Amino acid sequence: MRIRTQADIAELEKLPLSERIRHKNVLDILRDSGRKHADRIAFRFLSGTTPNDPVRDVSYAEMLKQVIQAANLFHTSGVGPDDTVTLLLPGVPETFIALWGAEIAAVANPVNYFLNAGQIAGIMKEAGATALVAADPSLFADIWPKVEEIRAALPGLKVFRVGGKGAAPTGVVDFEAALEQQPGDRLLAPKTLTGDTLAALFHTGGTTGLPKLARHTHGALALAAWTNMLMFGLEPGAVQINPLPQFHVGGSIVGGLAPIANGWTVLLPTALGARNPNVVRDWWSIVERNKVTVAGAVPTSLAAIMNVPREGHDLSSLKAFVSGGSTVPVELIRRIEGELGVPVVEGYGMTEVHGYSTMNPMRGERRPGSVGLRLPYTEVRIADVGADGAIRGDCPLGTIGHVLMRGPQVTPGYLDKRHDKGAVLADGWLDSGDLGRLDKDGYLWLTGRSKDLIIRGGHNIDPIIIEEALVRHPAVETAAAVGLPDAYAGELPMAFVQLKAGAQAAPDELREFCRQEIPERAAVPVEVVPIPQMPLTGVGKIFKPALRIDAAQRAFQAALTPLKAEGITAEVIVRNDPTHGTLAVVHASGAPRETAAKRCAELLGGFQIRHVVE
Q1: In which band, very low, low, confident or very high, does the pLDDT at 204 lie, cut at 50, 70 and 90?
Q2: Other Cβ atoms closer than 10 A to 496
Q3: Residue 12 to residue 21: CA distance in whole angstroms
Q4: pLDDT, position 189
Q5: E strand residue ranges, 249-323
Q6: Labelling 61: which of 37, 159, 517, 550 has CA 20 to 30 A away?
Q7: How many angstroms separate the Cα of 102 from the Cα of each of 78, 106, 462?
Q8: Under DSSP, is residue 529 helix (H, G, I), strand (E, B) or coil?
Q9: 553 belongs to a structural domain
Q10: Per-residue b/e over 250-279, b at no fewer than 16 CB within 10 Å?
Q11: Tens digits of per-residue pLDDT, 253-294?
Q12: Is residue 458 within 8 Å of 299, Cβ to Cβ?
């Protein structure tokens, strides 16, 4: 069934979920796809980005065999059904083999390998990891040097190495060689896999700070694998390029399990995906050679890709772009659809909902600026939520409130139940931490965030780590970190500081201090701005909404700087807006309105915040 409207979703839901979904767990999905599409290519891995670089294909039959072998390997290595297997792996087929093998035999725990060893070890301790699968330096140089430090912090850890030649280090198992010693036609110790069985622990809540481990269940993964492809309406045989890291639900579920469940080919453009600059440089050549049907990327990558020349490339295979992670700027959507003639299927999701919870329908009306319709069997509501987490009622249609979600695709909660407070609300509703509104046709429009998270290029940054670093500086009294709007990354971390009475510290000095104190490079603020007095609420807390408005005003004013040389005077006022949440109002003079509006659109079109020219 192809989804075009909210009515189509309601019609589909007339059939109970238990009768609609034939897959009950990850093993069901892989067995079904592995047998039905045995000779199709499940994964195509590009070792490089040019036509002369080696390509490795893994068929559906081979994939199924290797996943079962991986599950058997974990079992025979002493990993129990309730144990956790941590994965530090880049974008190679073995990442999915290990991930799904761990989900079938135990509990998988994909972790961001860009974190430092101490942070990774902390997440592993929280997850109760007893095994680690990590990449050899031949796949990605920065992972294996962290392994020894992790092993020292977690004595008795079982370690498997993916990639590499020659004998594995002492106490380490060669993953690929060990797979070959396992049967691939049957499970040696089948684990009971119900819809409620824990499959994975995905860390969220920011790439820095205290990790929160969201529980993923087999039933929710099976549902997400179906719903996250439903909005495309494409048949088996489609090719989806997946440049995202597999420690993120976008890379592992939206770009992995979901296309595999539907008989597609997952194209992995080198181990580093979009982080490899050559992938962006050669994007259109990759699409042409591999007849890519669906191209997926976060908004920052989309913007970079659209600046790469594509003349001379046959892009007739391309049917859609899919994006998420942060809001796609409206001007970027219009540019892609106008220049390429293919739809941009923007969606909205979270780690806590196993992928997307809303999507624009590829076959129906796509509303640029919205994140689409709710997916089947997932409820979305806009509610008035109190500071204590109490749901005080629904907001009127078109009014901004907290975006809440409920349904079998939503996580049953975090591993540490203390993290449920403020997120898992009454009657199973999950507070996304985002603000938004619903229109009369069921489209969701995001307008801001109710929580402080900074999203840089689709990656979460907890502002606490920045604030705690700055207040360690002897001159700083208080600090508040917020997102600085950015046309490329969506947001960049910045901080406001109030200095102690009589103290002095230059912005550059404070930024350098942050570089020394913050272990995660992406969290180092791009600006530190001293202000005389922090804005406070009535109870004395820092009022971050005012600082976000200040940050947005600075970003927009800086972006309009080139107009001065053109004789155009432009002043920006950023304010709260009942429809858009935040709106930048540009007052321009010195040129005809159409000219000013066109130039402002060129300079400001990449920002997620809407703007109008007066």
Answers
A1: confident
A2: 25
A3: 12
A4: 95
A5: 265-269, 294-296, 320-323
A6: 159
A7: 12, 5, 29
A8: strand
A9: no
A10: bbbbbbbbbbbbbbbbbbbbbbbbbbbeeb
A11: 999 999 999 999 999 999 999 989 999 999 999 999 999 999
A12: yes
Q: What angle do CA 477, 483, 488 make, to 5 degrees?
A: 145
Record the tokens describing residue 352, joined without a space: 């806590």
pLDDT tens figures, 41-66: 999 999 999 999 999 999 999 999 99
Chain position carrying tokens 């749901």? 391
Distance between CA atoms of residues 295 and 285, nearest Å: 13
Tell me the β-bridge partners of 174.
161
| Structural Rg of the chain based on CA atoms | 24
**Which helix (H) or strand (E) segment is 435 a member of?**
strand 430-438
Kindly state whether residues 276 and 301 are assigned to the same domain: yes
* Confidence at 208, pLDDT banded by 50, 70, 90: very low
Q: Pick from 436, 467, 499: which residue ends a domain? A: 436
Does residue 568 share a domain with residue 535?
A: no
Cα angle 564, 570, 573 (rounded to 5 degrees) comes to 145
Please state the domain count of the chain. Answer: 3
Q: Which amino acid is at 480?
A: A
Residue 130: inside a domain: yes
Residue for token pair 């709106």? 583
**Number of residues that make up the chain:** 614
Q: Of 410, 436, 462, which residue is a domain's last?
A: 436
Give 304's pLDDT tier (boundaries 50, 70, 90).
confident
Across the chain, which distance is largest between two alpha carbons, in Å? 76
Residue identified by tokens 């009971």 is 192
Q: What sign does the CA torsion over 10, 11, 14, 16 have?
A: negative
Q: In what order do the strands lie in the sheet with 212-217?
A: 172-174, 158-162, 129-135, 84-88, 107-110, 198-204, 212-217
Please report which helix (H) or strand (E) contains residue 514, including its range. helix 507-517
**Do 344 and 321 form a contact (C-beta atoms < 8 A)?**
yes
Regarding whether 409 and 289 lie in a shared domain, the answer is yes
**Could you tell me the residue range of the domain that residue 269 belongs to?**
6-436
Do 526 and 430 fall into the same domain? Answer: no
pTM score, two decimals?
0.83
With tokens 């402002």, the residue in question is 600
Q: Contact at 8 Å (CB) between 187 and 104?
A: yes
Q: Which residues contact 497 (CB under 8 A, 6 or more apart)?
A: 470, 476, 477, 478, 479, 480, 505, 510, 528, 529, 530, 531
> What's the pLDDT score for residue 207?
40
CA distance 343 to 337: 6
Please tell me the distance from the alpha carbon of residue 233 to that of residue 2, in angstroms, as a whole number: 5
Tens of pLDDT, residues 379-407: 999 999 987 899 999 999 998 899 999 99
448 found inside a domain = no
Q: What residue type is assigned to position 457 of the chain?
A: G
Whether residue 108 is found in the same domain as residue 165: yes
Alpha helices in 14-143 (DSSP H): 17-20, 26-36, 60-76, 93-105, 117-127
Answer whether residue 1 shows pLDDT above 70: no
CATH code for position 538: 3.30.300.30
Whole-angstrom distance, CA of residue 485 vs CA of residue 235: 38
Which residues make Cβ contacts (< 8 Å) with residue 16, sequence separation at least 6? none
Instruction: Looking at the structure, tell me whether residues 381 and 507 fall in a common domain.
Output: no
